[in-house]
Amino acid sequence: MPGGERRQRLAAPPPAHAGQPGEQGRAPPAPAFPAMLLGKLWGTCSLGRCALFFGLALLLDVVGLVLLLVGIFASLDFWDFLIYTGSLILAFSLLFWIAWYTLNIEVPLEKLDL
Fold first, then answer.
1. What parts of the sequence cross the membrane (predicted)?
2. 93 found inside a domain
3. Residue range 51-82, pLDDT digits in tens
4. Is the CB of residue 69 less than 8 Å from the CB of residue 90?
5. Is residue 25 in a domain?
6. Do residues 60 and 91 make contact, with C-beta atoms less than 8 angstroms apart?
7. pTM for this structure?
8. Does residue 85 contact residue 67 with C-beta atoms inside 8 Å?
9. Following DSSP, what letter does each residue of 31-53 receive, concatenated?
10. Domain count, the chain
11. 80: containing domain
12. Is residue 84 part of a domain?
């Protein structure tokens, strides 16, 4: 049907390279810098100065989550002990996450007003 083709042509957006006659479509400029993650190159990311706190927080998260999920889904007589213990361990791991984050904050000497 000729009318159906016309409707499709009218509804379709113009091609991205359509501009002035004779003008060729240009690709967007390439980024000047490699991929960045929080101001650092992807390949140079590290755990920071306090890897011990990071490891302890991660370990406590895993142990607390395992205990919590076992207490919820396993049919044991002491399920309440596992749920309470798992949630307390997860709460305690927050202290290590806060310590790791706080000790990795870098402030320039100019902003310290020493």
1. 50-75, 81-103
2. yes
3. 899 999 999 999 999 999 999 999 999 999 99
4. no
5. no
6. no
7. 0.57
8. yes
9. PSS--EETTEEGGG----S-HHH
10. 1
11. 48-105
12. yes
